[in-house]
Amino acid sequence: MKKVLTFILILFTLLIALPFQNASAKGATVDAFRYKTRNDASVPFVRLAMDLSSNVNAEAAIDDNGTKLALVLKNTKLSDGINSSYTINRSIVPSVTFREKGKDVILSATLTNSHKIGNNDIKIFGLKADPSIDKPDRLVIDIPSASAGTAAGSNSSNTGTVYSSDPTISQTPVDFTISNAAKKALKGKIITLDAGHGGTDVGAIGHLNGKEYYEKNITLSIVKPLAEMLHQAGAKVILTRNSDVNVNKPYSDSVSELQARCDIANNAHSDIFVCIHIDSFKNGSVDGTTAYYYPKTNNDMLLARMIHQANMNDLSMPDRGIVSNHFYVNLHTNMPSVLVELGYISNTHRLQMLTSSWGPKVIARSVFNGIVSYFQAV
Fold this sequence. Notes:
- The chain is of the alpha+beta class.
- The chain folds into two domains: 2-149, Immunoglobulin-like (Sandwich); 161-377, Aminopeptidase (3-Layer(aba) Sandwich).
- The protein has eight helices and 21 strands.
- A hairpin with a 3-residue loop joins strand 8 and strand 9 (93-101).
- The chain is elongated and about 70 Å long.
- The N and C termini lie far apart (61 Å).
- It comes from Allisonella histaminiformans.
């Protein structure tokens, strides 16, 4: 007997609700399949990823022994480039097979389960197509080598961390003096800072001198000095995370993870929410900074404009504009919010700056200036 997993999904409509209902009815194609063993979480895991021509409806089930996973993609076909079987990782997922059955595609994965995994351990989530970075709709499956119960615990209280002071951060980052005008603008303000990704979600990956660099670490290296400056200026600073952890729990699905970050800001009654990310693109020469907002309040665009203008004034980065976008954290926070992409991890020159001892602090100073300008304007 099989037990149906808790993540029976209608993919993508949970991530972004409107544009996909008709696409599924027309049928989808599995255009590519990739897999990789990852060691950047509390336990190793295998990530399976499928590129899709459009979104799909999917159902997943695992058998009682935890040794077989079946995923049914409704109204879907296999492209000619998809093999019938793949050898993956003999210690976690020995094999994966694909077959068509009627109008559906069935993916079957064998699991080597020395530490029995359950329904909540395997994570299945959809990623919406992003034409700006030439990414199609994707379906991702993360299969851990052990139950999440044996891994790092959850940080699911959704209260965040009130920043006080971090002794590892210089009290005056990059010879930066906080003006009396800045202190006046920020005194008593509640500001939630969100370092994008973290824990089992590494974000974008850059390569420099034969080494991999993860977006999750770079975003945190920017947020920490930014929090220090805001704290010195008299603001109450809330961090969604202050270390390399998931905000919700390890292997959390995208919606739960992002909602946990929004909950922290909403529960704190924050004045603003600032989400820090690093961009990526297949063309390594592309670089720049973008500020994304959603006009749910009168001041979302103002916040994005002030931070983006400060970045243009202070940083030698190409201007990729201020863009209205339906990013989850901008939609589901109650206060003015912005998601900023601060350079491209795929650009070697920018990655050198982002991983230097001074680069993150310079960027943090620029974002700080933009936040000050925002509060002076409102």
